[in-house]
Every structure is written in structure tokens, then in C-alpha cells.
Amino acid sequence: MTSSKYEDPAAAGEVRLWSAPPVGETAVDPATGGEEVLPLPTPEEIERIQRQAYEEAYAQGLEAGRQAGEEAVRARAAELAAVLRSLARPLEALDERVESELVHLVVAVARQLIRREIRTDPGHIVAAVREAVGVLPSSDATVHLHLHPEDAHLVREALTGEQDEGLWRIVEDPALTRGGCRVTTEVSQVDATLERRLAAVAAQVLGGERADDAGA
Fold it and tell me: Which CATH superfamily is domain 43-216 in?
């Protein structure tokens, strides 16, 4: 029988069936001994990575900018507060000066009004004298009425014929302002000068510390 060179595959060894690898799976390079080879990123993945990196960098820069802005605002606020504090002190002094000037202005206006009232109605000075004398304690002592010369003339005429005319003595004093008087006896005196009366009014309205300002 003629011998054949055909060999049975089963006799020659194990037979393996080859099949194509699935698409999309990681390929295995036979030359590397079966080590896994990572696939290259797609253009979409590269774009996504770049966009993510940009957004992270932008967020970090935005936070740094916000912190820097807050620090700048705090610094400006501190500077403004310092300026306002420095301005407050001059304003307080200005308020005191304005108040003092207003006191003098009010007193000056009141003085002019009183002078005009005396010129138009001499009875005002007579009333002021009677009020000042009424403050004195009861006594038979002679009362000295210190008056401006023009007011002295008016009071002298008004007191002529009074029952107690002999107890009055008028003393002309050019240094006194019209509208006021000073009443004295041997044991007491009453300061009813115009300046003193205006100072008393100013003290009631603005406080005792302004009494001297009003009388100046």
C-alpha cells in the first residue's frame, strides 16, 4: 500500500480556532508579550480635557480676583472711615462756633428790638425799673436808680408825683445800655442791665454755659 504524506491534524498537536477581536476593545500586541496598549484619545476627548483645564484655571483666577477685590474694598473703606473721623472733629468745633455766633446774633437783634421799643414806648423802661425795685427787700432806705441819661429822663418824668417820690434817687450813667438799669440801696443791689437780662434769657434757652457769651 502506498504511504501518504498527509498527517492528521489531531495527531500533529492542538488546533486553535482564530477569530477577529471585537471592534473597540484594547488590542494586544503579540510582540510585547501580551501587555495592554492604551488607545490614543480622540479629538473630542482632547477638546474636553482642554476645556476642563481652562474652566479650572478660570475658576482659580476668579477666586483670586474676588479675594483681591475684597481686600481692596476693605482698604478703601478703612481709608474712608479715617477721613470721616478726621472731618468729624472740625465739624464739632464748627458747631460750637456757629452756636456761639448765633447766640451773639440773637442777643444783638434782641438789643435792637428793645431799643426800638423804648423809643416808641417809654413805658418799657419804667416797667423794667419797677420790676427791679420790686426784687429789693422792703426797706425805708433810699433807692438809687442807675440809668442811661435818656432813660433817666423818661423815668424821672414817670415818677414825678409818686407818693414815695422822696425815696427815689436817679443816677445817670452813660455806660449803661438803654433799656436796662441797676438798682442799689445801702444793703442790697439788683443788676437789671440789658446785658444781664439778655444773658438770663440766653441761659434759659441754650444753657447756663452760654450766659457769659450772651452778655459779652
Answer: ATP synthase, E subunit, C-terminal (3.30.2320.30)
